[in-house]
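Worked example 2:
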Amino acid sequence: MKHNSRRTGLAVSLLLGLGVTLALAVGLRQSNAAQITFTKDVAPILYKSCAECHRPGEIAPMSLMTYQQVRPWAKSIRERIVEGSMPPWSADPKVGHWANDPRLSAQEIETIVQWVSAGAPKGDDKDLPPAPKFTDGWTIGTPDAVVEMQSEYTVPADGTVPYLYFSMPTGFTEDKWVQALEIRPGNRSVVHHVIAYAQDGNVKDTAPGGEGDLRAGRVHLGGITPNKTGITFSPGTAKLIKKGSNIVFQMHYTTNGAATKDRTKIGFVFAKEPAKTEILTGNAINTRFAIPAGDGNFEVKASKTFEQDVLLTSFMPHMHVRGKAFRYTAVYPDGRSEVLLNVPKYDFNWQHSYIPKKAIALPKGTRLDCVAFFDNSEKNRYNPDPTKIVRWGDQTWEEMMIGWYTYTRAESPAKATASSGASSSGQ
């Protein structure tokens, strides 16, 4: 009995000690939380990671630039960052390292959680850092040139607007190396996305607003989806627009119940000197598929084999609302393969470009395999009609399968460099 009593006493002491330790830890966390304020701790995080979209006139539904704007949303902000839905990002964290990964660090998440738990105190105004500066709505700075639709387009109140094409002369009298570009919709409420191309100025639009001859000889420049703003290329690289070119917009308008007008424009920042390396755009694409009605995991493949050494500088998978997942895999000439990008939960509303921290070298003969998965079942809450077979088409109730990528030609023989951040296999 005495032995048991000693054991019981020891257990009680340990439990009491653990309780004191936990109490001290909780007290310390509460003490730390009480010291966290908006002006000193939270505003710098929001300015760095949220303000680009969460500011007046931009795509987010609310501005998060001031304490008065942020305070009503404090609990909602905490929920969204803890669940990982904000800032939006869809890449598998186990594959690749990305220069434009917007995710908050564990410390930043904990700071916001503690701040909200402490009642979201404002703090001292003198601790507030300067708000980030944006140039008249442009995220790329002041453009050197702006090209705009030649007239407004009236978007009807309802119904479906087919994809439209608008051609605008640049007036460039010499070749231009573009360091950055940005597409600015005139009315974001009706512009779902825009894709911009450069085209020889001698190609004429045979039907204003229609397709005409505007597919001929186009060079892909970039695009804007509901979440994408400007594009800035790495130093020494640029897109080339030939003198006398036109800019062609492929416009996807969505009606919102009220007739309205749009006049979209594109701004360019030019490189100060000719680029050493030209940024090119390619894709692996499959237009011949039929997604069965009700199929929740239909697979579609496309591939591209490189006939020269290249450096991949970005990826952008594209599907519509039945898109479920997307994967890029490099298959090297020696038969080895590795996953370069994996998007396990594709979201049509957040179509990202994924920019590797270091350009990925692929030697001549490497095959880039793209695999897309589609959910045409009733479990997909965005599915317009799970009873229909779905094929390729421009409209969102149809589907696309495109593995976009940008690349440069390697100046010296390329050796595979993705393995430091990608997933490898011997398949």
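The first strand starts at residue 145 and ends at 148. The helical segments are 2-35, 38-49, 67-70, 74-83, 106-117.
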